[in-house]
Amino acid sequence: MVSAAGHQAWAVESVRVPLDAPVIDLSHAVQHYNGQGDRIQVSTAPGPDGIVRRIEVDAKHSGTQPSWIVFALTNDTDEQLERLIVAPHFRLAGSGLIWPDLGSVRISAITASQGFQPELEDATDADVFRLTLDPGATVTYVAELRTANLPQITLWQADAYKDKITSLSLYKGIVLGIAGLLALFLSIVFVVRGAIIFPAAAALAWAVLAYVSIDFGFLNRLFTFGADAERLSRSVAEAVLAATLLVFLFAYLNLSRWHVRYSHIAAFWLVFLAALVGFALYDSAVAAGVARIMLATVAAVGFILVIYLSTHRYDRAVMLIPTWLLLLAWVTAAGFTITGTLNSDLVSPALMGGLVLIVMLIGFTIMQTAFAGAGLAHGHVSDSERKALALTGSGDIIFDWDVGADRVYVSPEVEQQLGLKRGELEGPASSWLDLLHTYDRERYRACLDTVLDQRCGRIVQDFRLRASDGHYYSFALKARPVVDAEGEVVRVVGTLADVTEAKTAEERLLHDAVHDNLTGLPNRELFFDRLDAAIAMCTSHNAPRPTIVTIDLDRFRQINDQVGPSVGDSILLTVARRLGRLLRPLDSMARIGSDQFALILLSEQRFEQTVALADSMRRTLNTPIATGDQEVALTASVGVAFHDAKLHLKSDVLIKDAEIALAQAKRGGGNRVEVFRAAMRGQPAETASLETDLRRAIERGEMRLVYQPIVRLEDRTIAGFEALLRWNHPRLGVLSPATFIPVAEQSGFIVELGLFVMDRAARELAAWQQALDVSPPIFVSVNVSSRQLLRHDLLGDVKTVLNRSGVLRGSLKLELTESLVMENPEFAAQMLSRIRDLGAGLSLDDFGTGYSSLSYLQRFPFNTIKIDQSFVRQSGKGTRPVILRSIVNLAHDLGMEVVAEGAETESDLIELSQLGCEFAQGFVFGQPISAGEARKLVGAPLDAAA
C-alpha cells in the first residue's frame, strides 16, 4: 500500500512470542523507514483471520520528520503475555570507530495496531516499554525513533530483565568499587611518596573510574544528564583516558632521560589530546573517534617502546611487559567489539572489568618499582656501604692481594674478558708475571715491592695482560696498602679498570700526529725530525751521510680534477707503494705535500749509484696506473741534494736545496732528475723555494693586507678601498703579489690565500662600518682568482665570510678580470648570480684589456666596472684614448658604476669627473696604506679593528 507521504510501506512479518522465552532479539525482525515525513501508513501483519489491515501513525511533534521502525508480535498461546521492549541508549558493541554512536534516547513512542498501547517504563540507560499481548492476537507496532540509529531492540520477560539488571548491577558495583579504591589508594600513595609516577598512575586510575562510571550509567543515576551531555561525557572520558595513559607511559619509562625528542613528541601529543577534549564540545562523535584511534596508537607505540627499552636492559620496561601485553589484548578486544565482531551483551561489562584489572596491574608494577631499593634511597647508609655502592656503580674490577697468604683475588669479569678459566688469575702475586707483557713485568714487581717496603703510598700503574688468543688488554691498577696495628702491610686493595680503548686511541692519536692519514707515511714533521737525527749522527759519529730525494708528480692537479679525488687518492697510494719497494732498511720516506714525497737515503753513499736510484724511482712512476676501466699515465720530477758537512748544518737548508733541484727539474719540462748545484741558489729571489715558504706564511703571520683608497670624484671623499696582499718574507723582505701569486697559482695555494684575504678584509670592513655611520657605506674590493671561481666551494666561502663578519650587503666587492669570466661565460654567469644573491658586490676588473661579448656582458650581474689604467693615462700627445668616453657611457647604460684606475694627477681627476666616472684610484691619492692608516683616513677610531 502507499503511505500518506507517497512511499510504499509493505506489511511486516510477525514474530512468534513463546510462553517460556526470557528474551527475543528483534534487531533483525524490524523494518526501518526513513524519509516518510511526519506521518506513516503501513500494512499490518495478517491476523488469525488472514486479513491485512492498515495503520496510520502521526509523529509526536510535527515537523520533526522522524525515522520509524515497524515490527509485529504474535501470541499463539492461551494466556495473556506481558513483555518489555528494551532499546539501550548506548551499546559499545557495533558503536563504530569513525563517528561512533555515543548513545541517546532511541524510541519516542510506540503505537500498537490493536489492544493495549505500550507504556513507557522508568529507566536511565534504555528505553523500556511494557506491552500486553492477548491470547491468539497478532499485533503490529509502529515505533517513532528519536535518532536514525537503533543499535539493538529486544523483547524481555519482565522478571528475566529484572534479574539481568540486578546481576549486572552487582557486577558493576564490584568493578566500580575496585576502581574507586585503586584511584583513592594511588592518590594517597602519591601524597606520601611524591614520585612522578604516582600522580601519573593516579590520574590514569581516576580517568578509568570516570570512564567506567559513565559506561555503567552510574553518573547518570547520580546526576540527571541530557542526551547531549551524556554523549559529551563519553567523548571527553575517552579522550582523557588516552591522555592519562600517555602521561603514565612517559612518566613511568622516564622517556626524557633517553632522548629530549621523546619529550617534544609527548608534549605535542598531550596538547593534541587536550584540544580534542575542547573539540568534543563541538562534535562529540568525531572527538570520540579520534580518541579511540589515539588510545590504540598509544598502546601500540608504548608496546614498541617497552620492547625497545627492554632490549637495552631498562628494568622498568621489563616490568611493564605483562601489563602492556594485557593492554594490547584489551585494545584488540575493544576493536573487535566496536566494529561489531563481538556482539554479546556481556562484552562491554567484561571490557570495563579488564580495564580496571589493567589499572590494578599498573598499581602493583609501580609499587614494586618505587619501593624497590627504598632502603638505599632513604635509609641510613654506612661509609663502607657507600663505598661498596660507589665501586659497584663505577663498574671497576676488584683487586685484592692478601699479603700474608700471598693470594690475589680479582673479579671474574677480567677472567671472562681475557678468555681465562675462573680462578686462573687467583693465586700468588708472582703468577701474574707469565700473563704480563714483557715490558711491564719489572714495573709490576717493583711497585708491589715498594708498597711492602714503604708500608704506605698508592699504586697507580698501567699494565698489559695477555688474553688466551694472544692479544693484550691494558688495565689501570689503582690500589693502596692496608696496614695492621703493628704497621705491617696485610692487604693491598684497589681496582682494575679496562683502559684498552683509551690506550688504543692514544696510540692512534700519536701515530696520526706524525703520519699522513692517506698513505700512512711519516708526515713533514716526522721527516724533519728523522733528518735532524741523521745529520747529527753523521756529524758526530761518522755515520752515513744523508741524501735527500724530493719527488713531485707532474700535472697531478689536472689529473686529479679529471679523475676525481677518490681516484686521485688511489694514485697517491700506488705511488707510495712503488717507491716503498725501492727503499732499503736504512732509508726513510715521507709525504710532505699533496703530491710531493721526500726520501732520506742512507744506504747508498756513492754519487752515481744514488742518481741511478733516483732515476729508477722516476722510471718506476712512469708505468701507467690502472684505475677501473682506464689507465693514468704519470711522470715525476726528482730533485737530489747530497749532504755537505759545511753547508748543511740544519735540515731545512738541505731540504731547500733538494726542492731547488726539484724546481729546476720542473722548469726543464718535468720527468727528469736534477742534482742540486750551488749555482742554482743564484736564481732571483730563490723562487724555487717560495712554494715551501708560502705554505707556512699564513700560519707564521707573514701575510698582511694594505689598502689602496678609492675616492668618490663628486666630493673627493673616501668611498672605499681595494685590499692588496703583501708578503713580509723573513729572508727576502716584503714581496709584491707579482712575485708569489704565480707560485701560489701553480701550487694551488691561491685558494687558501684568497680565502685569507677575503676573511681579513671583511672583518676590517665590518669594524669600520660599526664605527662609522655614513651613507653610502664604505666598501672594500678583493680580487678573485680563476681557481677560486672554478671551485663550487667559493659560494660556501663567501657565505661563511659574510655571515661571520656581518658587513652590509654589497659592501664587500669581489673583483674578477674580464678574461677570467670569459673563460667559461655560462658557468661564470651562474656563479656570479648566486654570489650576488648571497649579498656580495661584484666588480669587473681591467675592463677593455680582454675580449668579451656584449651579449654576455649584459648577463653578468656586475655592480661596478673598473677601467684599466691603459685607457686612463694620457698618450704621448697629451690626449686620452677616445674609447674611454664610450666605455663610461656603456657602463652607465648597463646600470653600472665606473672606477678609473691609474689616476696620477689632479688634471686626471678633473677630466675623469667630467667624463662621468664616479670613482677613481691611483697614486695621486698616495701609495697603498696599512689598516691602521686606513682607519685614520676614514675617521674610524683605532680600536675599531677586527
From TrEMBL:
Domain of life of the source: Bacteria
SUPFAM superfamilies per record: EAL domain-like, Nucleotide cyclase, PYP-like sensor domain (PAS domain)
Pfam families registered for this protein in UniProt: EAL (PF00563), GGDEF (PF00990), PAS_3 (PF08447)
Domain PAS: 383-455
Keywords assigned by UniProt, alphabetized: Membrane, Transmembrane, Transmembrane helix
Keyword Lipid metabolism tagged: no
CDD domains assigned to the protein according to its UniProt record, in alphabetical order: EAL, GGDEF, PAS
Residue span(s) of domain PAC: 459-511
Occurrences of domain EAL (ranges): 687-942
Keyword Transmembrane helix included in the entry's annotation: yes
Transmembrane domains' residue ranges: 170-190, 196-214, 235-253, 265-282, 289-309, 321-342, 354-377
Protein name: EAL domain-containing protein
Origin species: Lichenifustis flavocetrariae
